[in-house]
Amino acid sequence: MSDQSTEPSADTSDAERARAASAADVRDHVTRLDAALGFMATTLPPASPRPAAPFTGEPLLVKDLDLKLADAPLWRGNHVLREHGVVSNHDDPMGRRLRELGFDIVGRTKSAEFGLAVTTEPLAYGPVHNPWDLDRSAGGSSGGSACAVAARAVRIAHGTDLGGSLRIPAAHCGVFALKPGLVRLATTPTFAAWNQHGFLASRVDDLRRMLPVLGRDMASEAGRSGTEGPTRRLRVGVLASAVSSAIDLGGGSVEAVERMADKLSDQGHHVLPAHPRVLEQFDQFAMQTTPMLAGWLAKEVADASEDLGRPLTESDMEPATAQMLAMAARATPEAVRDTVQWLRRLVTDLTAWWGRFDILLSPTVPVQAPRLGWLSDPDTAMHRTFGMMQYTAMFNASGQPAVNVPCVGVGGLPYGVQLVGAHGSEADLLDLAEQLSPEGAPAPPFS
């Protein structure tokens, strides 16, 4: 889809002229950066302004996956949907909310096909390049949005997080990301419930402004207690070891976590080595939940097929997508039932830890951004993908909020540390993230 003309008519007001010029400048800026980094799936024409809306004219990029906007492309990282120019026929609740709030939705950012990978290298339209090193992955599956924010194409971008799809690319691109928690836990664990809309930004205050957009409270515990600022002494447990056999923890990741732990201790928080032991069952978690992931994918493909007007076939998808989809047909109802029961016990054990601690500090990812191709090799992709998700995915199952905090480490590449809190602690996590990185996200060489 190409940009529509933003040339104002002769009777356009000064304010409307300024908005039109600003929208055109933003799209030009995004297009120039995209030419080098490849983070865009498509641009969108400016919408009619909503003068009374709280975010009128604020540029926003949205991920090309789960968010539907009427008459706008929705290709989900798939080449067939892109080639046929598939568009959504309605706004979903988040799409409608973003429009009503007045955002200027500049375009859609690239996603891994159906969001399955932790790198954004879709065959449909090529890889997203990391602005810290163009030969490296930007992470995934919200890699397009993370790259755009890191490169300062926009201040805020939308993404989704099913098992780390916001936090992993945020860590690899060096930006902040908020995965909100579930307001209410589903009685039956499902991937549809675990998948959350969230946002990435280069400054914490921009993420804080998005809390009402997500339907979350902006007030922190410090604010509710009548004090100013994050003065409450928090109990922080620190995890600085691998919890999966798939990928070991790089030394630089350990140093990044320890550096942040020292900062929190210096600020008066009670910090000690501790973590929920159930996290060490991650390899079993990955194995148990794979059939559920395949079932979720089957529903996503069916939804896309309805948009396309015909069923998507195996040849219409990347090999890894077709392989995962085939697992859905082999999953028995008994196996799914057993997994659901196991997950309920796991979530109970996991969340109980927050009765003794306020925050878990851990790596977001075990290693810095790998070279392009390392996470998309068909022979090793699934194993490495699970390893990259070892600190993030269980908190989708538990429905807890989590934030990525960026920092620069070995070789000048970013690391990410993760803060995880109890349900309803989004504002507190952002306050803590700002304590750790008050200067905002570091700027990459290409921005």
Features:
alpha+beta, 447 residues, Amidase signature (AS) enzymes, disordered N terminus, 15 helices, 8-stranded mixed sheet, 37% helix, 3-stranded mixed sheet, 15% strand, globular
- Rg computed from alpha carbons, rounded to a whole number of angstroms: 21 Å
Biggest sheet record: 8 strands, mixed
CATH H-tier superfamily = Amidase signature (AS) domain
- For this structure, what is the CATH class? Alpha Beta
Domain module tally? 1
- CATH architecture heading: Alpha-Beta Complex
Task: List low-confidence stretches.
Answer: 1-10, 225-230
What structural category arises from helix and sheet content?
Answer: alpha+beta
**How many beta-strand segments?**
13
- The general outline is globular
Mean pLDDT: 91
Oligomerization state of this entry? single chain
Distance between the termini: 25 Å
Summed up, the helix count is: 15
Q: And the CATH topology?
A: Amidase signature (AS) enzymes
Tell me the β content. 5-15%
Strand order, largest beta sheet: 6-8-7-12-13-11-9-10
Instruction: Write the element-wise H/E pattern from the N-terminal end onward.
Output: HEEHHEEEHEHEHEHHEHEHHHEHHEEH
Q: Into which percent range does the helicity of residues fall?
A: 25-40%
